[in-house]
Write a structure and sequence with these properties.
By secondary structure, the protein is an alpha/beta fold. Helices cover about 25% and strands about 30% of the residues. The strands form four sheets. Strands 1, 2, 3, 4, 5, 6 and 17 form a seven-stranded mixed β-sheet that branches. The mean pLDDT is about 95. The structure holds flavin-adenine dinucleotide.
Length: about 300
């Protein structure tokens, strides 16, 4: 049995692994998708102390190397359920295998929210994307629409403006909600423009079922606004990945796990770290902080077991 199973290899999970390993515990990290989590979608991170500027994936590589050098075991397997069988005895059920541990640190972050307009799911990979870094290059030299008003949308716009002809940012409300420095940086780009108060009404498709345009309603005057583009990037918030532990924790209205800065949940031995926890600021630094606190809490829990 592993001492600590950490679910999620984002900054929270990898920081937790580093702290738990340095406390002398054995650690298995279970990752369902991408090492590095969300930050691996960020073209440029400038607010992680000691790293002036780095791509998110470079930062993730460094964390991953540090964690594996210390002895972390990594399994690429998605967790579907966590069961507590007794004190210091957890069964973690995954798509491919089951794993056992004395304590579990849940660090599964969040995923992209979909807008919910008809046709959206069918158009994923046919013009609609939630990841500029993954799909931006497919639209090199073309016009694209970016839907969203906060830091992720701004960060994506910055990346897209390097390869696309023009990026049209469409926001639902009458302002941006991202950091001012980022808004200024993005809007200074010549091939970026924006329009506020636009609510997406429908996607337009061609004969092959691929995107050929978007129709919005201007919420101020009710007029229709059409963009003829083959690429649309969406960054309208996130949904936490907490389904697999929902019977063991309390969730807030948004589905985030209710836990304080101590990362302790209502199930002894289960700790929650990073963006999947109910909190105000979701950043790499706060995820790392949560991960380290959770690892120390898990270590204390294990040491206190009879
Ligand atoms: C485009 C973009 C740009 C950003 N830019 C910045 C920035 O400049 N500075 C900054 O500080 N922050 C930035 N952020 C935010 C930052 O990336 C997040 O706050 C941070 O990654 C959260 O870390 P986390 O470890 O809590 O979760 P995540 O990074 O979301 O990692 C969670 C991991 O858990 C995995 N997982 C989920 N469910 C399961 C499951 N059931 N089983 C196994 N694995 C699972 C996921 O695949 C993922 O790898 C950005 C985010 C995005 C999307």
């Amino acid at each position: 049995m592993t001492d600590v199973i950490i679910v999620g290899a984002g900054p929270a999970g990898m920081s937790a692994a580093i702290y738990a390993l340095r406390s002398g515990k054995t650690v298995t990290v279970l990752e369902g998708e991408t090492i590095g989590g969300q930050m691996s979608n960020s073209p440029r991170i400038e607010n992680f102390p000691t790293v002036k500027a780095s791509s998110g994936s470079d930062l993730a590589d460094k964390m991953f190397e540090q964690m594996t050098d210390l002895g972390a075991e990594l399994e690429l397997d998605r967790v579907v359920e966590v069961v507590k069988r007794g004190e210091g005895d957890f069964l973690v059920k995954c798509e491919y295998n089951d794993y056992e541990a004395k304590a579990v640190i849940w660090a599964t972050g969040a995923k992209h929210r979909h807008i919910g307009v008809q046709g959206e799911e069918e158009l994923i990979g046919k013009g609609v994307s939630y990841c500029a870094l993954c799909d931006g290059a497919f639209f090199t030299g073309e016009d694209v629409v970016m839907i969203g008003d906060a830091n992720t949308a701004l960060s994506y716009t910055m990346f897209l403006s390097n390869c696309c002809k023009h990026v049209y940012i469409c926001t639902l409300f009458d302002r941006f909600f991202g950091e001012k420095a980022m808004v200024d940086q993005v809007l200074a780009r010549e091939n970026v423009s924006y329009e506020h108060c636009l609510e997406l009404q429908r996607f337009l498709t061609d004969d092959q079922g691929s995107l050929k345009g978007l129709v919005f309603k201007n919420t101020k005057d009710g007029s229709e606004r059409r963009y003829d583009v083959k690429g649309c990037f969406i960054a309208v918030g996130q949904v936490p990945n907490n389904d697999a532990i929902k019977s063991l924790v309390d969730l807030d209205k948004g589905g985030y796990v209710l836990a304080g800065e101590d990362t302790i949940t209502k199930t002894a031995g289960l700790f929650v770290a990073g963006d999947c926890r109910s909190k105000r600021i979701r950043q790499v630094t706060t995820a790392c902080a949560d991960g380290s606190v959770a690892a120390i809490a898990a270590t204390s829990y294990i040491d206190a077991l009879k």
